[in-house]
Amino acid sequence: MSTTDRNDHDETTEPITDEVHHNSWSANLERPKYADDADLAVRDALVAVEHTAPGNHVNLVTHGDLGHPETFLYDALEAESDGLSVEYVERCGCGGHVSRVRVG
Questions:
Q1: In sequence order, what E strands does 1-104 have?
Q2: Pairing relationship of beta strands 57-62 and 25-29 according to DSSP bridges
């Protein structure tokens, strides 16, 4: 999947980010539109990682309805990007999950 494919959004979908973050930050993949769309969550997670400068991390906060991110997200991250480390942080009180992705 190319960066262009991941950044192509229909008129109703706003991108998760459009700037490169030169610090550690969090990407909110917990909004209702992600609740039943793991593919959208993966696509936007990949965009978030691509927009994180090396030496920083992005916290990916995924919707609880998707289940543990290890089941749908981690393999996709590792397949698409070299030099990443993915770590499960915690389950949020609201039911979502936080994963930290360090960009090498």
A1: 25-29, 57-62, 84-91, 97-103
A2: parallel
**What structural domains and CATH numbers belong to the chain?**
24-103 (3.30.110)
**Helix ranges, the chain (H):** 3-7, 38-50, 74-80
Q: pTM for the full model?
A: 0.85
pLDDT over 90 at 86, yes or no:
yes
Question: Could you report the per-residue pLDDT of 33-65, keeping only the tens digit for each?
Answer: 999 999 999 999 999 999 999 999 999 999 999
Residue with tokens 């990007």: 81
What DSSP state is assigned to residue 66?
Answer: G
Q: What would the mean pLDDT of 15-25 be, rounded to a whole number? A: 90
Which residue's structure tokens are 């039911």? 95
Q: Rounded to an integer, what distance in angstroms lies between the CA atom of residue 16 and that of residue 51?
A: 10
HSE, CB side, 13 Å, CA atoms: give it for residue 9.
14
